[in-house]
């Protein structure tokens, strides 16, 4: 029986180096796998979060009768004369028929502005407050001014929205039939974008 020679210092050093390198490679692989899984999960959560936003935007644009103005972070449209409304049909834009879809980049909020009359408001008061706009109005300025009326108030569609680009299929807003909204949203860590396309189901320009 010949005794096994002990490891030399050089052999021991090489063995430790190989072990350390192997452990480092395994750590990198495990971390990469974890990051890939996390990214996939984040992507799924982002898509799941986007679905109700797309549905609300598609419904809003689809039910519009006419696009009045569009620009960076906003879309102004007319819902048309409303059956059974206090204000009689007049083929013109009234405050109660005006809508503003807008992103506030400071608060990162996407909101839809519409007119909400106070509870118990009389028909006479509604008729007096339901302003009729002229055909050549500056529609974005009109919508911004309507915010000060006390009736034109926002409903939050989503938070975490940092920007909204708007594209129309016509250079003239009132002639547009298709709307494309490029939504940029963030969860505080990752920023993504999505395009929401919708067509007016029953288009008709006022006047």
Would you kindly provide a written description of the structure presented here, covering whatever features stand out?
- This protein is α+β, with helices and mostly antiparallel strands.
- It is 33% helix and 29% strand.
- The protein is built from three helices and eight strands, in the order αββββααββββ.
- It has helices at 9-62, 123-129, 139-146; strands at 66-71, 74-78, 98-104, 109-115, 152-159, 161-168, 178-186, 191-199.
- A five-stranded antiparallel beta sheet has the order 1-2-3-4-5, with helices on both faces. A three-stranded antiparallel beta sheet has the order 6-7-8, covered by helices on one side.
- A hairpin with a 2-residue loop joins β1 and β2.
- The chain is elongated, with a radius of gyration of 29 Å.
- The N and C termini lie far apart (110 Å).
- The mean pLDDT is 87.
What gross morphology would you assign?
elongated
Radius of gyration equals 29 Å
In terms of DSSP E residues, the strand content is: 25-35%
pLDDT under 50 segments (min length 5)?
A: none
Number of H/I helices: 3
Biggest sheet overview: 5 strands, antiparallel
Given the helix and strand composition, which structural class is it? alpha+beta
Write down how many β-strands occur, each being a DSSP E stretch of 2 or more residues. 8
Relative helix content: 25-40%
The separation of the N and C termini measures 110 Å
Mean pLDDT: 87
Write the SSE topology.
Blueprint: H1 9-62, E1 66-71, E2 74-78, E3 98-104, E4 109-115, H2 123-129, H3 139-146, E5 152-159, E6 161-168, E7 178-186, E8 191-199
Antiparallel strand pairs: 1-2, 2-3, 3-4, 4-5, 6-7, 7-8
């Amino acid at each position: 029986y010949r005794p096994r020679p002990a490891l030399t210092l050089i052999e021991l050093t090489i063995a430790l180096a190989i072990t350390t390198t192997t452990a480092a490679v395994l750590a990198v692989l495990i971390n990469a796998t974890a990051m890939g899984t996390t990214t996939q999960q984040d992507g799924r959560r982002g898509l799941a979060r986007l679905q109700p936003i797309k549905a609300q935007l598609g419904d809003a644009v689809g039910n519009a009768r006419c696009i009045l103005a569009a620009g960076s972070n906003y879309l102004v449209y007319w819902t048309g004369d409303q059956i059974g409304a206090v204000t009689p049909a007049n083929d013109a834009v009234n405050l109660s028929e005006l809508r503003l879809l807008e992103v506030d980049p400071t608060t990162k909020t996407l909101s839809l502005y519409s007119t909400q009359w106070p509870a118990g408001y009389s028909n006479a008061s509604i008729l007096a407050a339901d302003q009729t706009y002229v055909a050549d109005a500056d529609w974005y300025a009109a919508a911004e001014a309507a915010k000060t009326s006390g009736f034109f108030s926002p409903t939050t569609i989503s938070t975490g929205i940092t920007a909204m680009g708007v594209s129309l299929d016509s250079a003239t807003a009132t002639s547009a039939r298709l709307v494309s909204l490029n939504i940029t949203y963030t969860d505080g860590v990752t920023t993504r974008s999505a395009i929401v396309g919708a067509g007016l189901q029953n288009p008709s320009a006022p006047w």
